[in-house]
Design a protein that fits this description.
It is a single chain. The radius of gyration is 29 Å and the shape is elongated. The model has no long low-confidence stretch (mean pLDDT 89). Helix content is 80%, strand content 0%. It has eight helices and no strands. Helix 6 runs antiparallel to helix 7. The protein has 172 residues and is an all-alpha fold.
């Protein structure tokens, strides 16, 4: 008798599972298709980002090679495009290359590039504070005390490792 009840229970369970799949077949297939599409989309997006970063790296490297070989025309424009791509790695590198090699001399343009690095690129906290400090250091030669305080205020109010340097710069 117990064996028959077990067989009936097993058959009932199997029948319920079959009915569940038959009743919800369209919904289950739809969910499965959506999950597969999401996975493909995610991997496609990762590949796209990787290709974009590789293209940006190639553009940056090509500009540096041109500059070092003496072909200095269009270097400024090419590196500006790298900066405006707002990449965490190559935008700061391109800006500092332009700045260190005196390719850009306009104070407004330099400050606008600093603002792009500070406000529009998702840098980590300490790197962002370093860029703010560098902007303050650059502006310390010609900006008044209030403007310099406005620039350095985020670093001064934080617990950054750059806070003592910013305070020292303000004292000078």
């Amino acid at each position: 008798m117990d064996q028959e009840i077990d067989i009936i229970n097993t058959n009932t369970r199997i029948e319920k599972i079959k009915n569940l799949f038959n009743n919800y077949k369209k919904q289950l297939v739809s969910i499965l298709v959506i999950i597969i599409l999401i996975l493909f989309g995610f991997f496609f997006y990762q590949d796209y980002k990787s290709e974009k970063k590789e293209d940006l790296a190639n553009k940056y490297d090509l500009a540096l090679v041109k500059y070092n070989s003496g072909q200095k025309e269009n270097i400024k424009q090419e590196l500006k495009e790298v900066i405006n791509a707002k990449d965490k790695t190559y935008s700061p590198l391109a800006f500092y290359f332009l700045f260190d090699n005196d390719i850009i001399n306009s104070k407004d343009e330099i400050n606008s590039f600093f603002d792009i690095l500070i406000d529009e690129i998702n840098l980590d906290k300490e790197t962002k504070n370093l860029v703010i400090f560098k902007k303050g250091l650059y502006n310390s030669d010609f900006a008044d005390e209030n403007r310099l305080l406005e620039i350095l205020n985020p670093v001064i109010k934080s617990e950054s490792i750059w806070k003592p340097h910013a305070l020292y710069l303000m004292a000078e």
